[in-house]
Amino acid sequence: MPRQTFILNGKTVTVDVADDVRLLWVLRDRLGVTGPKYGCGINVCKACTSHINGKAFNPCAVPVGKLKPDDEITTIEGLPKQVAKKKRGEHGLHPMQEAWLDRDVPQCGYCQPGQIMAAVALAAKVRREGREITEADLDTIRNICRCGTYTRIREAIVDGAERM
Ligand code: FES
Ligand code: FES
After folding, report:
1. pLDDT of residue 91
2. Residue to mutate (ligand 1; options 27, 28, 52, 58; most atoms within 8 A of CB)
């Protein structure tokens, strides 16, 4: 069985699994990291959104064999450690998660880890470009919320981006 090595939430992990198994199942079923949710499995719903090397991606669409040993995968579990301790909020979380809590965004919660990971990647991209988030930027987030919490999500993204 091939051995797959990559960095997960700051630690190098190695797992024996076939090259064509998609990363979402390796994370959830082999490594017990269940923050990335299984919604569609075909790169549509975005419930599994995580980061690879700081950019948003969907692990349900990536065969684990495509990862390199120095690829850094971050899931919602590893998000707080992406910022310095002093930038974390009163719950010890990433500023985007704190904005989410303050605005009471989730309803059932299923889509929310993916929403937050997409939001952080967007806020970081906009910051690199030296500008503020626009309505058009918010429209680029395609994560589906079956509970329809979109208004609160959009408000929290702007709030969280300002705190980052
Ligand atoms: S489960 Fe990955 S995009 Fe739907
Ligand atoms: S909060 Fe229920 S799916 Fe988004």
Report:
1. 92
2. 58
| Whether this model's pTM surpasses 0.90 | yes
Q: Would you kindly state where each structural domain of the chain is located, as residue ranges? A: 3-78, 80-163
What is the average pLDDT value for the chain, to the nearest integer? Answer: 97
Of 146, 83, 139, the closest CA to residue 109 belongs to 146
Q: Check residue 109 and report its DSSP letter.
A: -
Tell me, using a 6 A CB cutoff, whether residue 148 lines ligand 2: no
Predicted pLDDT at 81: 95
Pocket test for ligand 2, best of 37, 46, 111 (most atoms within 8 A of CB): 111
Question: Among the CATH numbers 2.40.110.10, 1.10.940.10, 3.40.190.10, 1.10.150.120, which is that of 80-163?
Answer: 1.10.150.120
Burial class (CB in 10 A: 0-12, 13-18, 19+), 40: middle
If you classify domain 3-78 with CATH, what class do you get? alpha beta
User: Residue 89: its pLDDT value, please?
Assistant: 86
Q: How far away, in angstroms, is 128 Cα from ligand 1 center?
A: 27
* Residue-level pLDDT at 1: 78
- CA–CA distance, 28 with 132 (Å, rounded to integer): 35
